[in-house]
């Protein structure tokens, strides 16, 4: 033992587990009187948000929620969703943010897989929740959220109403983080290449570090006014619920992600930061093109874009509007964005087209991510930085998931060789910025959401007329990408594009349904394996990620 290991042990005074829950306590302590949440007519300060979150934590504890228990949410971007991101981790519990676009069977499957004990659900989703609860096959505590900004239909399904539950419990004296920063903070489901969702388990340390990385990457100032256009159910809002708390910013909530509502919120609440998929940015451009007055009164705004690589027209359009766009790349397994196309000062001197090309790359690793490169997955050696040699994007570091829930085989495969394998194929350019060229996973990214092509194919195969099918991505001016199906019919069978699309609607969530069907011979190898790369060439789907 050397001298630096003697009598210098970690103690509570000098070693505390990292958790983003600490951001909420600090901000409430220092900036408690400052605004924290804006939602319609509702306004909460940071002291109030902290108290509401502590009341929710107390209520959940009274309902039996503790360390390692799962709390699911089915909520739009409302104050309750923000508070759940603070309350659930403070108990050592795990938050499972369900995609509001999913159908009832998949909601039930995910809640059963992560063994959720409580569901916090907005009453707008009551019809699908009722079906999911029926499919669950077991009892679960349901807390109904009756949002003041929602006036549509939707019955109460649970034994508890959110506001009444908060009022019935004294707040916990403190929102504490875990004793072990490796403890799970969230489980988020992502489509896999097999079509089966995988439960991505993330930890407190990673959430803390990625929240800080968001600030550093964006050079986000203190007291930002952040608009919730990105769904908080998606990778826990890329860790921005915690990032905003860290910077004592304002959560500007938005139930409906519509261009006019976005622009109005930017003007009315002084929004200066937001994140969104390319489709949202394109919607803003189109709205302003039709009515330039919508941009009046809006100051400097910074947007972050991910999903499929943003089309050049989108980056150019946002630049002409005066919006500064930062392009990031990542996956659920790396807490959302884990790399960024850092804009070097010299880029400003380039022509707009070259600026768009440079900004459209996946870029370099986040500041607190230990490694990101492009490697040959067979030899686990880095490819040359020549912009030509293809390899697989890989990450390593603290901003990588714990693994896949109840799926040790997939976890081991994902971490082979000491790196996380993304499945995305790319090149390393001479400046060491990464550029995606193709996807080894057959995942279609539509409106920022992942669609498993195999899941769509499984639905098509359930139609009696379908002999063979393959689904690939094609460029979509609205959604970035959309599913395109190629189909071969059984001898003597007949069907139509409309009939197959209607058939898929009975089996899939709406956004997963093919937008088009082509009845054409499907290329296969001598052993009968479908050659999707040829179909991608037909569909010109590769241009969606150029």
Automatic annotation (TrEMBL):
InterPro entries attached to this UniProt entry: AMP-bd_C (IPR025110), AMP-bd_C_sf (IPR045851), AMP-binding_CS (IPR020845), AMP-dep_synth/lig_dom (IPR000873), ANL_N_sf (IPR042099)
Entry superkingdom: Bacteria
Keywords in alphabetical order: Fatty acid metabolism, Ligase, Lipid metabolism
One of the protein's GO biological processes: fatty acid metabolic process
The keyword GTP-binding is assigned to this record: no
Domain AMP-dependent synthetase/ligase: 25-405
Limits of the AMP-binding enzyme C-terminal domain: 455-529
UniProt GO molecular function: ligase activity
One Pfam family per UniProt: AMP-binding
Gene3D superfamilies assigned: 3.30.300.30, N-terminal domain of ligase-like (3.40.50.12780)
UniProt similarity note: Belongs to the ATP-dependent AMP-binding enzyme family.
PANTHER family to which the protein is assigned, alphabetical: ACYL-ACTIVATING ENZYME, BUTANOATE--COA LIGASE AAE1-RELATED
NCBIfam families reported in the protein's UniProt record: PRK08162.1 (NF006020)
Protein name: Acyl-CoA synthetase
Organism encoding this protein: Hydrogenophaga crocea
């Amino acid at each position: 033992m050397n001298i630096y290991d003697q009598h210098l042990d970690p103690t509570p005074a000098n070693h505390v587990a990292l958790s983003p829950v600490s951001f909420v306590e600090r901000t409430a302590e220092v900036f408690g009187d400052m605004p924290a949440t804006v939602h319609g007519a509702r306004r909460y300060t940071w002291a109030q948000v902290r108290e509401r979150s502590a009341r929710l934590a107390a209520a959940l504890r009274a309902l039996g929620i503790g360390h390692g228990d799962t709390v699911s949410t089915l909520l739009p971007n409302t104050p309750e969703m923000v508070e759940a991101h603070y309350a659930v981790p403070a108990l050592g519990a795990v938050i499972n943010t369900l995609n509001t676009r999913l159908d009832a069977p998949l909601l039930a499957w995910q809640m059963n897989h992560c063994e959720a004990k409580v569901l916090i659900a907005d009453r707008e989703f009551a019809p699908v929740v009722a079906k999911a609860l029926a499919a669950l096959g077991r009892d679960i505590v349901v807390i109904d959220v009756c949002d003041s900004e929602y006036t549509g239909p939707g019955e109460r399904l649970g034994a508890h109403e959110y506001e009444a539950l908060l009022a019935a419990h004294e707040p916990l004296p403190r929102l504490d983080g875990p004793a072990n920063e490796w403890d799970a903070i969230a489980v988020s489901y992502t489509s896999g290449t097999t079509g089966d969702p995988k439960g991505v388990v993330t930890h407190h340390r990673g959430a803390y570090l990625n929240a800080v990385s968001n600030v550093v990457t964006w050079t986000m100032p203190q007291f930002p006014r952040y608009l919730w256009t990105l769904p908080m159910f998606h990778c826990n809002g890329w860790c921005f619920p915690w990032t905003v708390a860290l910077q004592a910013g304002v959560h500007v909530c938005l139930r409906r992600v519509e261009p006019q509502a976005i622009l109005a919120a930017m003007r009315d609440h002084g929004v200066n930061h937001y994140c969104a998929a390319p489709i949202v940015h394109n919607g803003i451009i189109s709205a302003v093109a039709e009515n330039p007055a919508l941009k009046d009164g809006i100051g400097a705004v910074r947007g972050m874009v991910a999903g499929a690589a943003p089309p050049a027209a989108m980056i150019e359009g946002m630049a002409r509007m005066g919006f500064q766009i930062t392009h990031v790349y990542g996956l659920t397994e790396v807490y959302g964005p884990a790399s960024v196309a850092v804009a070097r000062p010299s880029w400003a001197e380039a022509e707009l087209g070259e600026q768009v090309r440079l900004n459209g790359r996946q870029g370099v690793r986040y500041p607190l991510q230990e490694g990101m490169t492009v490697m040959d997955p067979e030899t686990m050696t880095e490819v040359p930085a020549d912009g030509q040699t293809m390899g697989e994007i890989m990450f390593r570091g603290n901003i990588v998931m714990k693994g896949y829930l109840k799926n040790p085989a997939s976890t081991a495969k994902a971490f082979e060789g000491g790196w996380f394998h993304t499945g995305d194929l790319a090149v390393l350019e001479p400046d060491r910025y990464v550029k995606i060229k193709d996807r080894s996973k057959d995942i279609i990214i539509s409106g920022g959401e992942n669609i498993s092509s195999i899941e769509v194919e499984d639905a098509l195969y359930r139609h009696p007329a379908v002999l063979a099918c393959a689904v690939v991505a094609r460029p979509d001016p609205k959604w970035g990408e959309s599913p395109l199906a190629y189909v071969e019919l059984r001898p003597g069978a007949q069907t139509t594009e409309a009939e197959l699309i209607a058939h898929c609607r009975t089996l899939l969530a709406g956004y997963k349904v093919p937008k088009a069907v082509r009845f054409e011979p499907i290329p296969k190898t001598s052993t009968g394996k479908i050659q999707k790369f040829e179909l991608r060439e037909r569909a010109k789907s590769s241009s969606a990620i150029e």
